[in-house]
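Protocol step 6 of 9: fold each sequence in the batch and record its structure tokens directly after the sequence line. For illustration, a two-sequence batch is reproduced in full.

Sequence one:
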Amino acid sequence: MFTPVWVANREEPLADPSSSELTFSGDGNLVLLNRATNATVWSSGANVTAAANATVLVLLDTGNLVLRGSATDALWQSFDHLADTLLPDATIGLDKVTGRARRLVSRRNLLDQSPGVYSMELGLADVVQLLWNSSVPYWSSGDWNGQYQYFSSVPGMAARHLFDFTFVDDGREVSFACLRGFSVAAPDVWELGDRTAGCKRDVPLDYCGGNGSVAGPADRFYAVAAVRLPYDPRSVGGPVTSAAECEQACLSTCSCSAYSFGTGGCSVWHGELVNVRHLQLADAAAGNGEVLHLRLAAKEFQTRKKSRAMVIGGAIATGTAALCVSVLVLLLMVMARRNRRNRPHCDGGLIAFRYRDLQRATGDFSDKIGAGGFGSVFKGSLNTSTTIAVKRLHGSCRAEKQFRAEVSSIGILQHTNLVKMIGFCCECDRRMLVYEHMPNLSLDVHLFRSKSNAAALTLSWSTGYRVALGVARGLAYLHESCRDCVIHCDVKPQNILLDGSFRPKIADFGMAKLMARDLSRVLTTARGTVGYLAPEWISGMPVTPKVDVYAYGMVLLEIVSGRMNSEEECGGGEDDDEVVYFPVLVARKLLEGDVMSLVDRRLSSDAVVEEVERACKVACWCIQDNEADRPAMGKVVQILEGLVEVDMPPTPRLLAAIAGRSHSACT
């Protein structure tokens, strides 16, 4: 922000400064014109003796704006017409040559450069004075002491023989404020630094009649302690011996605004109170201050009394309400803690069940609906509407803290083709997982029907194909869409559950991570066959997501045929030496273009040729010996959806070798 140090036309400011023009007149003077009217608003008024075109305007490094003629002497300079800022080399006082008095004059406010009511000038007796309204002195420097080089009223100058300019921003700083019962008269210009309007009463003293006599309730007085009394006090005529008599003397006159009674007797003030000053704490403690009794309307005390009562009442009500709320919150916390002890609680979005709750929900684990390498599964019910499946893990060696962390990481996996985990149990050495129950059991029940399972249904081709596509989507999510790749490690029909709409849900994902056991031993024990294990896993190589791709290919072949891939037959056709090992048979039938003969006989009339061929091709690619030749599950989804064409796959050499050994056994 820039500070204006000189203004040409302070007394007559232009309404539209953008219409002004500063130029030279015909006689060489500097003039300010109003371009709208072409009238001269201001002129330097110098006595120019040189040619008109010889005058120049120069801004010196000191900030002095100088009008010069042909010589170097100044015809006019801004330092002779100071505003409210004293620059270096500028002087105040009487110019004995021109007879002009140089002085500083305040501005009205921060935005209005017009002359204000305060000024600083040097008097005839070499006394620096601060004047109000250019006539009333309110501060004087005192006489100049030539021997010691300081003003008598400024003894601090004697130490260094210099003025000491300081910025005070502490308790000593003098600030302007309104007394009690008064407020700012002109708040719009107050913020701009113009305090000349002063303060006004909040409640007028309107109890005086037209003839100056008191009418109505008497006004009251508010004591302002430790102050320097205002200017222009008046004495009360007649003897006044007490503060009560002084107060009554003020009340008897409508124009009386305050009184003070002290060692000097009774003093009263009429009209405005000028320069009332609160003393600093040190001065007040030393007893240097006086007590000013400020006259206020009776309504002012009533209003403040009501306000005080309202504040006190509000504070009491608020405190009481806060206490009641605190007690209520405490009671609720105690009740919640008791309830938490008596019911399952949530841990990372999953419910942490107590063992006895699951024991009661499953009827003491009486309804066993499945078993596998990781544990047994029991059917249960949390309430009349929520059926659950509880997997009781065997052999989990994870500590409680680690088990909870691993379960939480599995619980955040959410996909329409993944079984939803509801919660878990971790008490002592008991480790259990709670899932949503799938009413249509697992895929193997419907693919490999047996006389012992009368509830099994034959899946239509469209349902089977939809199951295959859903499983592919679920595995693609685990492999490619999770923050950390999740390898299932046990993809098989028994771990593909079907909901009420026969939508597939992959189960047991993440189990290998929880169990921390040798994966190959778990899975071979679970299946009793290597039919779903990839060749690299059997040979002890590192496990990658491609082991799930291999297992998925085997499952897809079983969906097509409706039988286990491990079933082998000798002499299954006209050629008695023919070996029927389904994965190898699929590769051969693809080359012959006879894929419909591979479909489950129960579904042959319902199958779609394009979908059967697509499923057989992608399945053969998934079971390739080299894991690099197997597609990612995301691409498998695209192939089954018909978005990507798939080439003819080669026959897996390892499976062909297995078929050859089977052929030798048959012959």
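Sequence two, same batch, same settings:
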Amino acid sequence: MAFSGALTLTDLNDFITPAQACIKPVEQTNKAEPKDPGAASTQIQVDSSGSYYEISASGAGSQPAGKKLETAQISLNDCLACSGCITSAESVLITMQSHTEVLNALRGNPEKGAPAHRTPVLSIAPQSLASLAAAVSSSSARPADPARVLRRVAAFCRDALG
């Protein structure tokens, strides 16, 4: 079956190429120290815990001074605000599947006996269960395996969400 000669399909891809620079600036809460015109350059070092330090030598023969740098935090909302990485259709899907939409759907669901009641079905990825188990294990004396965490999450969902 052929397409009409009057209709042509062009540029069906709505992928936006990633921007060169992120639009979310790094917020600096401390003021920059005034520097001498002949001051030495700085370097960034990473210690064993993964913290970043700005190392600078204030003058000839002096000990290097280190200042801990803050970690930049970017959320999914920040990424969606810039011009890149995902298509516009994907951003609509992500917005439609947010936690607020799920909570609104659960609140709008009639009681169990009502004919319009819909049974909510939730799924949890194995990676999410493993991450939750690691978080629970790090904050308690008893290690938590993913199966135990799944039982706890399922009980919470039945009690709190319906």
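Proceed to step 7 once all outputs are recorded. Observation for sequence two: The beta strands are 42-46, 52-56, 65-68.
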